[in-house]
Amino acid sequence: MAKAAAKTNASAMPSTAERRPALAGRSVSATGVKLEITPPAERISLRAPEASLAALSKALGVTLPTKPKTSATKAGRTALWLGPDEWLIIDEAGKDPLADCAKVAALHSAVGISHRNVAFSVTGPAAAAAINGGCPQDLSLEVFPVGAASRTILGKSEIVLLRSGPDAFRVECWRSFSDYVFTLLSEAASDAAA
Amino acid sequence: MLLIRCPYCEEERPELEFRNAGEAHIARSTNMAGESDDDFEKFFFIRSNPKGVIYERWRHMHGCARFFNAVRDTVTDKFIMTYKAGEPKPSKLPKNSNEVVAK
């Protein structure tokens, strides 16, 4: 009998592990705001001194920004300035930035965090108002222009915010916070629409 | 909400992004084992806690994550100036304390 049970269990096991992104498929549309989960992307957290920047920029194919609150994008890869020696690299083209960094001999620390983060796209004319529902930063176009990026907070959760267009934002948060961030943004989106 | 100027981000950011990290310019002894109990107590526990201008460490926790120093008035809660960690204690404070001075 035990043998039979074991056999059934074995046949019920899938042959490959299925990847289930957090909150996959959820989206919210309110008047003026659309909130969606972005597809999985490759991400690394990069720490490096100034002397290594040229070599790293060359290997990554995107110039690491050195000005606060800025980002640089090239061929589906975005480098976001987080701190004086800290960057978040997001690759949406399916390439591996970690492997690119591994070829660099200059001093640096690159940590793969692809699965640590979940990203949302917040788009529409009321996108900034929806994010301001939980984020205290000034998101007007003069102060937070297209391409601006910053680590900040949304409600009780830390996020990384990137403005990809006048009416488009990318919100990166930790996977375990994603349910909270998504719910807060959905509420804020319906408030912003009202 | 208070706006605090982060010397690394080079702009004023909302206070929710920051954490206080205690009094600044407290140097750790290079010979900690040789410290007398009284000296260690002074270093470890005793803080000036003034009414008025205080020099503090702050951290831009939810921003660039860097520690920096700030001069704050404990009565008005006004930030007089901020400067990067490791820089010497400013000998002269800006006259108009309403203005947060860039360093």
Automatic annotation (TrEMBL), chain A:
Gene3D superfamilies: Heterotetrameric sarcosine oxidase, Probable tRNA modification gtpase trme, domain 1. GO terms for molecular function: sarcosine oxidase activity. It comes from Mesorhizobium amorphae CCNWGS0123. One of its GO terms (biological process) is sarcosine catabolic process. InterPro entries: SoxG, SoxG_het, TrmE/GcvT-like. Residues 1-25 are annotated as: Disordered. It comes from the Bacteria. Residues 1-12 have a biased composition (Low complexity). This is Sarcosine oxidase subunit gamma family protein.
TrEMBL record, chain B:
GO terms for biological process: tetrahydrofolate metabolic process. InterPro entries: SoxD, SoxD_sf. GO terms for molecular function: sarcosine oxidase activity. This is Sarcosine oxidase subunit delta family protein.
